[in-house]
Amino acid sequence: METKLLVPQTRGDVVARKRLTEVLDRGRSARLTLVSAPAGFGKTTLLTRWLADRSTPVAWVSLEEGDSRPLRFWGYLVAAVQRAAPGVGDGAAAMLQRGRPDLDTVVATLVNELATAATELVLVLDDYHLVDDPALQACMVDLVEHLPAKVQLVISTRVDPALPLARMRARGELVEVRAADLRFTLPEVASYLTEVSALELSPDEVSVLESRTEGWIAALQLAALSLRGREETSAFIADFAGDDRYVVDYLVEEVLDRQSAPVRQFLLQTSVLDRLSGPLCAAVTGDPDSQRMLEQLERANLFVVPLDGRRRWYRYHHLFGEVLRTYLLDAHPGEVAELHRRASRWYDEAGDPVSAVRHAVAAGDVDRAADLAELALPTLQRDRQEGTVVEWVGVFPDELVHARPVLAHGFVSALMSSGQFDGVRERLDELEQRVPAGRGDPPQGTVVVDRAAWERLPGSMALHRSGLALIEGDPDATIAHAEQAMSRAAKDDHLTRAGAAATAGLARWTRGELEDAHRFYSLAVDGLRRVGHVSDVLGCSITLADLRITQGRLEDARCTYEDALRLAEHDPAPVTRGVADMHVGLSEVALARNDLAAAAHHLERSRVLGDAGGLPQHPYRSRVAQAGLAAAEGDVARAVELLDDAERVYFGDFAPNVRPIPSMRARLHLALGNLDAAASWARARRLSAGDQLSYLREHEHLTLAMVLLAQHRAGRAGALEDATRLLERLRLAAQEGGRHGNLLEVLVQLALAAWTAGQRSGAAELVRRALVIAEREGHVRVFLDAGPALAAVLRTVSPNSSGGRHAARVLGVASPVLALPLVDQLSERELDVLRYLDTDLGGPEIARELSVSVNTVRTHTRHIYAKLGASNRREAVRAAVRLGLLRTARR
Description:
Elements lengths: L17 H9 L5 E5 L6 H10 L5 E5 L7 H15 L5 H7 L6 H13 L5 E6 L7 H13 L4 E7 L7 H6 L3 E5 H4 L3 H11 L6 H11 L3 H11 L6 H7 L3 H14 L3 H10 L5 E2 H8 L4 H10 L4 E3 L6 E4 L1 H14 L4 H15 L2 H10 L3 H17 L3 H8 L4 H5 L2 H13 L6 H11 L16 H21 L3 H14 L5 H17 L3 H17 L3 H17 L3 H16 L9 H14 L3 H14 L8 H15 L3 H13 L12 H11 L3 H10 L13 H16 L5 H18 L3 H17 L3 H18 L3 H4 L3 H7 L9 H9 L1 H4 L10 H10 L5 H8 L3 H15 L4 H10 L9
Parallel strand pairs: 1-4, 1-5, 2-3, 3-4
Antiparallel strand pairs: 6-8, 7-8
Helix pairs in contact: 3-4, 4-5, 5-6, 9-10, 11-13, 13-17, 15-16, 15-18, 18-19, 19-20, 20-21, 20-23, 21-23, 23-24, 23-25, 24-25, 25-26, 25-27, 26-27, 27-28, 28-29, 29-30, 29-31, 30-31, 31-32, 31-33, 32-33, 33-34, 34-35, 35-36, 35-37, 36-37, 37-38, 37-39, 38-39, 39-40, 45-47, 46-47, 47-48
């Protein structure tokens, strides 16, 4: 379609925006120029005006929804390049015409052709938010990262693209124009109103309108439309500066009064709809020609926004729609309920129960809405749309819910799945009074629409009792209620049986019985697969993988996530909730193996899918995974920020919180050298080396041991001994529980403690045992995260001994890691001493140079050795050179 490759014509009546075109000009030296803002902010207008003043060839692609298909997208992009720079892109185009080309090769060929082009080029991808194919996004990352400097890539989009923006921003490779930049300034408002719209307004009137609209062009457009042709503007401006509700009412009345009666009626009647389509509007208005009317409104620029490339679905601009609804209520209050009833019937027949319920409630027909809601519960539960059901809790009157046990039970289930437990026990108590323990007919006065769900209630309620016991920390009661749920559930009630198996598995997990927990959770997955609850299978897969990671079995965890992704590929749902979580999990496995590129790739895939592709804990889990990657890449301060953000969005479900965010953050504080913050955390948690150990606090006690080791290096007496005793107890507990993932961390810290105590052979043996465990599954990160001090221990392991090969592998990737911040930063005085260690001066001479005592120099030297993982002066100097603390070492 040739028109998609044409730069849109520049309108003459546009506001000159030099401040923004100068920003776009700076993009010539960047890897990417991003113009990102919601609809209606003038993105395309800005770009076309900017390009009109440039002589550089332009390859322009106006994207549509159907362009998400990779071959179609790359076909248009290559064609745009060929059009702008004849001869460039011919090779890539030829490959695309061969049927099923390898897209990576196509992109590489295009990049090479652009690199050899004789001229500069601007490549613009407009409406990029319509492109969302993951395979396409991956190739776009390659294009952006390898695009030659002579090509300026400009992306215009309503949402940020799935590209490494943070990395490019940090490297100065990204130029951005955001919604805040696109808002009109006061001079631009004046230019729009007085020059473009030809309105005669005083500076004060312009200032009032700028203040009321906050520089948003859509509101200014509405004001200009009402002002046009008006002789007296002062009264209008005065009203416009008054109460917002009346301002908007007045403004829309002015617009509506200038429309024909059929248009005005259509606008008002369809304002009750969040989305507009020809068939839906026809059902609501009774006008069979509604599709034509929608297209007419769009052409007339009457605040209609198309939602797809085929003009089948639209919506009103949000402000315009709100105002229409307000006017409808004021002018025709008796029509509103019937309009909503018509919309509800249409949505019900179209298979959209959520919208049908919403409109039935808006119509005041709560009984019909409750019927629809009850019938929709199984589908919403299967698709993990518990948020929708929770919203209904506050919609329906209590007396109506009390008479409908199936609906009441659905509310309990949704509340518990969303982590909202307040009042749930009371709801269950009330339900048990109305539902017999065994299956039977509903009692008199009870309304049941879904008879199959009624039959499942006895087992389901016992299952919820099991969940409450789990939340309250009573694993024995959890298992007892789960067994009761099993006994009450029918043989073919796979959903209840799966839930009972899951809660029983979680109870065993809290007790540290990981293998039993995995067995029960596997039973739950089998039952959920039988009933097609794919999202729930994915949710269970997170638990299964977490269990395997704690056991140190990374490959099993990876296979669990991959199997879940393959299952989701066959799910008919447009977006299967949980897919994003699987990529987060795969990133964590990759990070444990120090495959940072794979970890970043999966996190990017997760980000592209967004929260819509994630389960309730996705916002929290994804930030924790991002923090781990940031720390591995050396940006520990950024990792702390991500953990703070993760804590803000934390969502607690039924799984035990065995790796609390504060504990993880304390470890990062140690990595930043902030011992005070880490020690403060330990005091706040009232942790001590003599605490009784439990699996649920194993992560915290291991973190405490790290704090104690750091305190020893800072000179605290007895800290090393306390740390060693605590670590020995943790080692025995993890070993007996088969928690080899945790055992690895304990052994590494024990090795550091032994090395610090001067027990060189003991440290070597401890780290060798850790290497033997790690090698089977490819664990690398656990050694690197221990910091430079461990490198000295690893070098003592013989290459020919068991674990020696893995030690060499870890040391082989340690060089970039040694460039990261030290476990404890050297103080300014220690840095002074370190510089003298790279000289021929002895201790007394260094003391004289620094005007300190010899004992002080010796103390600083011991601290330097401990922090650099060195055992003598020469090793300390070499380590300092590797870390960039010294420029060169004397030979």
